[in-house]
Write a structure and sequence with these properties.
about 120 residues, mainly alpha, 2 strands, about 5% strand, elongated
């Protein structure tokens, strides 16, 4: 074999191209090995039905009134009614803010503190 610079360059180029082809082949094989199985039509229909059910439930929740917690007298309103009440209430901003703070405190009552117990490690 000839050890001319031209032959060495050609061998290097062929070696580099071969290395890239080996890496490309490994990537292709790995993609095939770890790819999830394709969704069948049954699973696709289940997902479509679940999405339709979630959207229907959400639309009903947005369009209807509901008592969410009878103990704290919390009510879910429609968006339009809540916006109307907010506009009405904020005609007097000071009173609206104090009412909002009072309602937030009433809805988020902190849990009672646990009783003090002596530590075993004292």
């Amino acid at each position: 074999m000839n050890n001319t610079p031209c032959c060495q360059k050609a061998a290097s180029v062929i070696g580099i191209i071969g290395a890239f082809l080996v890496v490309a082949l490994l990537v292709y094989v790995m993609k095939q090995a770890v790819a999830p199985p394709p969704l069948n039509m049954t699973r696709a229909q289940e997902r479509k039905n679940a999405l339709a059910e979630i959207r229907e439930t959400s639309a009903k929740a947005l369009a209807n009134y509901k008592i969410t917690d009878p103990n704290t007298k919390s009510v879910r309103l429609t968006v339009e009614r809540a916006m109307d009440l907010t506009i009405e209430e904020y005609k007097n901003p000071g009173a609206a803010r104090s009412n909002l703070v009072a309602r937030a405190e009433k809805a988020n009552v902190p849990p009672p503190k646990p009783p003090e117990q002596p530590s075993k490690y004292e």
